[in-house]
Write a structure and sequence with these properties.
Layout: H1 2-47, H2 51-57, H3 63-134, H4 139-150
Length: 151
């Protein structure tokens, strides 16, 4: 039953990467696009010599700073829009593809631990039997230790 829950959780994570990741990246890209457009408006106003209008709208730097801001916002917008969405989708698809392998690794580790524990119990019992046969342990001590191991 735990297997189903873990598999469902991994599927949910993959779907979140595929759907929510790109949506968030596009929102961020739109924010940068808006900032880029605001800088473009400020640049056009300042370039046309209407400094009084610009001072009322926002604190404005010189034209070269606005150009740098414009290209920075444009670059970041493209990075989020194309790069971010692509990476999120790829991660989600990779998780979906490797989901069964991940589950097999988890289940294999658990089964190995169970096998090792049962083997360890039998080894301990054999050692106790040897100690009893040699006369190192009494019957009472043997039974107490055996019960402790089998718990």
């Amino acid at each position: 039953m735990k297997y189903v829950y873990i598999r469902s959780f991994i599927t949910l994570v993959a779907i979140l990467f595929i759907i929510v990741g790109p949506i968030e990246c596009i929102k961020k890209a739109n924010d940068y696009e808006t900032s880029k457009n605001n800088v473009k408006i400020q640049y056009d106003i300042l370039n046309n010599g209407n400094e009084k209008i610009v001072e009322k709208v926002e604190h404005v730097r010189n034209l070269s700073d606005l150009e740098v801001d414009y290209y920075t916002y444009a670059r970041k917008s493209k990075q989020y829009k194309y790069g971010g969405t692509t990476i999120c989708i790829l991660i989600g698809v990779i998780i979906l593809i490797t989901r069964d392998r991940i589950m097999n690794m988890i289940m294999r580790d658990k089964s190995n631990k169970i096998k090792n524990n049962s083997l360890d119990k039998y080894d301990e019992l054999k050692k106790l039997q040897c100690l009893k046969d040699e006369g190192t342990l009494t019957e009472e001590e043997f039974e107490i230790e055996k019960n402790n191991i089998l718990k």
